[in-house]
Prior knowledge:
By secondary structure, this protein is of the alpha/beta class. The chain has 13 helices and twelve strands. Helix 1 (27-35) runs parallel beside helix 11 and helix 5 (139-157) runs parallel beside helix 6 (178-188). The two termini are 32 Å apart.
Amino acid sequence: MEGNPHGMTVGFPRMHKEVGERRDFLPDLVATVARAGAEVVVEEGIGSGMGLADVDYTSRSDRIRTGSNAEAFAQDIVVTLRCPEADEFEKVRPGATLVSMLHYSTRPARISALETAGIEAVSLDGIVDDAGRRLVVNAKGVAWNGLEAAFDLLEATWHPLRTAARGPVQVLVMGIGTIGRHAVEAASKFGSEERCRAFMAEDLPGVVVRAVGRTVTDDEGTMRELFATTDVLVDASQRDDPSRPLVPNVWLAALPSHTVICDLVVDPYLLDADPPTVRSIEGIPRGDLDRFGFASDHPAWCDTIPAGIPTEHRRHVVSCYSWPGVRPHECMELYGAQLGPLLEVLLERGGATGLRADGRYQERALQRARLQTWLGQGRSARHGGRGPLIDAESTYHDAVR
Length: 401
């Protein structure tokens, strides 16, 4: 069985999410798994959101066949980008390995459901190398897609952006990790190379980008002072304590009325969890691929934010649960290239239970992403303080999907 000595089978179910979620893993990745010796079941209609047909997959190998959603979920290893819904866990047989973006640190209910179902989980967002750098990540896509949306909204709502009389656009980036650094570059170009060229041709003033980390974000006085001159506020932070906001809603009062908040973090509100999870910037709506731009008077401020969360101070917001999905084909090409070698190792080891902490490079990375490894570290019990920003791609937030 070539690189699959344990005879593992692999399923690729489709994601049945919001209409705007068009991503599926591409034929190249599925063919890689088949070449490693696995029998592969892809759900009928896979790739159709990106213009692909079933034959684009099945023609790559006689080991690849189409099947129902239930058949794809019934394999030894199940691979899907975004986590299945809770009621889909029952389709995964006990002992099988689920490979998906699972975000252990902000999903206590999901962890409990995975344990109850007896699923061996490997979280894509937790696959990190020996230096803590994520191996399956589209950091550039998150930053550039988010900043492009932010400047689109700023251009639509703030007339001075297209006038030479204004000064430089002022952007404040909270977070100096990988995505924060990409955000700095994207912001410096008005969120897109095309817009940057157009604005420069019109001789419009450019952009000044300021980036702050943990030594500043806990200082309310300094943050309010910075907010007062900010046209675009970018949240690329990672908190130690997701139960407390990084930016309380009252701080937003210091922002100019035209400011656009660019939410690259997109943590949820999970108030019933113990401890709870709240949004990094308090009281702003959370978007998805169907809608990610919200004016300050949008109904989402009332309809989607839990009662008791302060929303008095509002600004325009762009927020998307899955920023990389704005450009689905480009995103899945990258994820496929990153994930292929890791799935080959997973097949070789016979699924998650065969992974060893002292294995070679990719095996060690996969082992770190196991749910059992994460539980063994006891991270769900460690909380304290409002939480500084940290450079922690190993646990980076929900938007990187």
